[in-house]
Amino acid sequence: MAARRSTTQAFFDAGTSTISYVVWDHATRQAAVIDPVLDFDAGTGRIATASADRILACVAEQRLTVEWILETHAHADHLSSAQVLRARCGGRVAIGAGIRSVQAAFAEVCGLEPSRTADPSPFDRLLQDGDTLRLGGLAVTALHVPGHTPADMAYLVDGAVFVGDTLFMPDVGSARTDFPGGDARQLHRSIRRLLELPPETVMYVCHDYPPPHRGPAWQTTVAEQRAANVHARWSVAEDDFVAMRVARDATLAEPALFSAAMQVNLRAGELPRPTTTARTTE
Question: What pLDDT is stored for residue 178 in this prediction?
Answer without folding.
Answer: 95
